């Protein structure tokens, strides 16, 4: 799991500025709206549940492994509007680094449509504002072969790619053209693979990828703040020819 120090700062915005007008109609601060938007799974919970779900999604989507270690501890200001349909309508990211800002925008855009908020029986837009402090990993997980590597992230990537294609069964994929899928998984605090998932349009390709990775060998676990910690990984996988 990706880790952040999250501080929610619910602010009152009496009027929408020109950028915020992309969300049509009335906009109410999340903390003050009568019926807040509802994230799936929070139907019988209070508004804090929705905030937690939004935070978790942002954490899970944010690819910390793409961010330079020198940016550890940097802060990101995130402000966004959910419109009257519960969809992301506008966002503003304040970050000291272009790469952090780009990844934060990409991560926020993965937010699904929520059950919309309402005020006085009418659906309204809501504004949510929070600050994020990056708390990066000190070391990624790595195999024995990478123990003395200067850049363990690169070594891990090369090891994982090599393992995947060494164990990948291609027999049923001839003549399928160019195939694409994304593998996602965690290396847990014991160094073992967990939460293995694949998203792609070709079911045979997806199953071949899952089969190739299910026996992925244990690694030295990642460390964060001096402690062993689960580490998320995502791998885009292309195979075949156009």
- Stretches where pLDDT falls below 50 for ≥5 residues? 1-24
Give the overall shape. globular
Number of strands: 11
Share of helical residues: 10-25%
Round the Cα radius of gyration to an integer and report it: 21 Å
| Number of helices, counting only DSSP H or I runs of 4 residues or more | 4
State the CATH architecture of the largest domain: 2-Layer Sandwich
SSE order in H/E notation? Answer: EEHEEHEEHEEHEEE
The percentage of residues in β strands lies in 25-35%
Give a written overview of the molecule.
- The protein has four helices and eleven strands.
- The chain is α+β, with helices and mostly antiparallel strands and 242 residues long.
- The strands form three sheets. Strands 1, 2, 3, 4, 5 and 6 form a six-stranded mixed β-sheet that branches. The protein has a three-stranded antiparallel β-sheet with strand order 8-7-11, with helices on one face.
- A hairpin with a 5-residue loop joins strand 7 and strand 8.
- Helix 1 packs across helix 2.
Would you spell out the secondary-structure blueprint of this structure?
Elements: E1 4-8, E2 27-29, H1 47-61, E3 75-82, E4 88-95, H2 98-108, E5 117-119, E6 122-134, H3 152-166, E7 179-187, E8 193-200, H4 203-213, E9 222-224, E10 227-229, E11 231-239
Parallel strand pairs: 2-6
Antiparallel strand pairs: 1-6, 3-4, 3-6, 5-6, 7-8, 7-11, 9-10
Helix pairs in contact: 1-2
């Amino acid at each position: 799991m990706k880790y952040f120090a999250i501080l929610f700062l619910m602010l009152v915005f009496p009027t929408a500025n020109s950028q915020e007008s992309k969300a049509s109609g009335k906009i109410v601060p999340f903390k003050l709206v009568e019926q807040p938007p509802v994230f799936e799974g929070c139907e019988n919970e209070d508004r804090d549940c929705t905030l937690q779900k939004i935070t978790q999604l942002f954490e899970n989507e944010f690819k910390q492994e793409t961010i330079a270690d020198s940016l550890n501890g940097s802060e990101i200001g995130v402000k966004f509007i959910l419109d009257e349909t519960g969809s992301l309508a506008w966002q503003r990211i304040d970050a000291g680094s272009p790469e952090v800002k780009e990844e934060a925008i990409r991560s926020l855009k993965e937010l699904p449509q929520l059950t919309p908020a309402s005020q006085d029986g009418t659906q309204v837009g809501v504004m949510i504002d929070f600050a994020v402090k990056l708390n990066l990993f000190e070391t990624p997980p790595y195999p024995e072969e990478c123990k003395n590597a200067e850049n363990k992230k690169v070594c891990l990537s090369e090891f994982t790619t090599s393992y995947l294609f060494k164990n990948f069964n291609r027999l049923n994929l001839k003549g399928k053209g160019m195939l694409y899928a994304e593998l996602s998984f965690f290396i847990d605090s014991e160094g073992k693979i967990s939460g293995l998932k694949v998203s792609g349009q070709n079911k045979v390709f997806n199953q071949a990828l899952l089969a190739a990775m299910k026996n992925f060998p244990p690694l030295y676990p990642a460390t964060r703040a001096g402690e062993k910690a689960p580490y998320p990984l995502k791998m885009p996988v292309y195979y075949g020819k156009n």
